[in-house]
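thread: overnight batch results

M.L. [08:02]
morning all. the overnight job finished for the chain we discussed friday. pasting input first so we're all looking at the same thing
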Amino acid sequence: MSRWEQIARAAGGDDYGRWYAERFHQMTERGEDVHGEARFLARLVEPPASVLDAGCGTGRIASRLADLGHEVVGLDVDPVMLEEARLSAPALTWHLADLAAFDLGRTFDVVLVAGNTLPLLEDGALGRACTRLAAHVAPGGLLVCGFGLDAAHLPEGCPPTPYAEVDAAMSAAGLGEVERWSSWDRDPVEADPGYVVTVHEARRHDA
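M.L. [08:03]
and the structure it wrote out:
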C-alpha cells in the first residue's frame, strides 16, 4: 500500500475519495474559501491556458480552472480519487498515472502540483517526478507547486520534504525558481515557513 493510500484510508476510511470530496463541499457550504490555487494561477496566466493538474485528487482545482476558461487535464495515481473527479466533471480529461513515470505526449502552459502531492510521493521518487513534470512544461511555461514543510501543514503520517531537496530536483530537471511564497495568497516567505508555494520555469540554454 502506498504512502498516500495509507494516509487517505486512515483519514477517510475505505471510501476516502467520497470523504475527501465531501470535506471540501462542506467547507464551501460554510462559506470558506477553497479556491486559492485557482486565484494564484489567474495572476500568472490568462484563459484559455492549457493546465495540467498533476496530483489532481478529486478534481476540485481542475474543475474550478475549467470554469474560469482554461483547458485543463487532470492526472492522479489513485483510481479512487479519480472516480470522484470523473463523477464531478465528466467533460474533463482525467488520466490515471504515476507522477514519477507518466508521459502524456504533450506539454502545457502551466503544470500545477498542489495538495501536498510532492511530500506524499514514495521514497526516492522526487527526482523522477520532477523530471517527468518538467518534460510536460511548454517552452515559456511554468511549474507551480504548493506543499507543507512541517507537521502542522501536512497530513498525519506524511514526513516533511525539505524545500531544498525539491528545488535541487527541479534544478536537475532543468527548472529554475522565479517566485516563492508562503501561501496561495502570496504571503511573503518567513524565516521558517510551514508552507511553500513556488513557481519554476525552464532555464534558457544561453543563461
